[in-house]
Design a protein that fits this description.
The complex is a heterodimer. In chain A, the strands form 2 sheets. In chain A, strands 1, 3, 4, 6, 8 and 10 form a 6-stranded antiparallel β-sheet that branches. A 4-stranded antiparallel β-sheet of chain A has the order 7-9-5-11, with no helix packed on it. Chain A has one domain: Immunoglobulin-like, CATH 2.60.40. Chain A contains 1 helix and 11 strands, in the order αβββββββββββ. By secondary structure, chain A is an alpha+beta fold. Chain A is elongated and about 45 Å long. By secondary structure, chain B is mainly β. Chain B has a single domain, classed as Immunoglobulin-like (Sandwich). In chain B, the strands form 2 sheets. A 5-stranded antiparallel β-sheet of chain B has the order 2-3-8-5-6, with no helix packed on it. In chain B, strands 7-4-9 form a 3-stranded antiparallel β-sheet, with no helix packed on it. The chains are: A alpha+beta, B mainly beta. Chains A and B meet through helix 1, strand 1, strand 2, strand 4 and strand 10 of A and helix 1 and strand 1 of B. Strand 11 of chain A pairs antiparallel with strand 1 of chain B.
Chain lengths: 148, 159
Amino acid sequence: MFRHCLQLALLVFPMAELFAGAANLPEAKAASLAVEQVALHFAPARLAGGEASVEIDADLIYSNTGGPKALTARLDEDMPAGARLEVELLSGAMSVGRRVLTSRSMNLAFHLESAQSKPLRLRYRFVFGVAASPAVFARAISYTLIDQ
Amino acid sequence: MLNTIIRTVAGVLLLASLTAFAADNANQKLNFQVQPFVNITVADASLTLVITSIPQGNQGEATASSSYALVNNVPGKKITANLDTDMPQATTLWLAAEEPTVSRPLGSKINLSTNPKTVAREVGSVNQAGFGLYYSFKATEFASTSPFVRTVTYTVLND
């Protein structure tokens, strides 16, 4: 009997969490995002016109069973002086075009319709000029799906 | 029996709760490397300086100008200039170069030789062309009249 009581207690906790969260996140249930590559490496080796740049394509995978969503992105920290990171959605939804990423959230795409595990092809472009001192650094980019 | 039912219900609810809280965001780590780029180029591959007369009591002189372009993202550099071979007897080659800054001050005249001489110091971040190079070739009456060639090499080094 004691054993059964213990199992029931463990069961009640996630149920309570489920019902408490359901009221606040009705749409979050319907959408998910995942990155294909956890980490990317940008190391431009050629200089052209006083700027060095490199492009890398990457995929985001999203699922959406709710209404249309928009995709936003932001960096955890602004890029250093003289360097910038651009990103553009190439396919998978309606792109707003190339954007220079900062620590402020910005829209990258609209009209992400209902789909299961649909890829969103992104193109990153890392650019730096002579104002950027030689350095090695990292940034985290955070993508979010929001209701449109 | 009761145990089995409880386990089944617990599994279903756990699955339901995971679905309910599926992430609507994703993070990606981006690693960057800004490499040092230092590149100096001259505008003219070849210049010709000809002394046509030697004024009485003075040296003969011929001048020519060119320019250099510099790309540098490593502050604290200097530029040196040197010849491949020293100038022949009774001749000298002088250089005055604009420093690679916004105001482009003209550096002092230096007498070029195989020994590298500093043209500009404390060079900072720059990406520009058209910094002036002003040559002055001088000869006395004791200089040979045979034509000759010298190569000036510009080098960017740590200051």
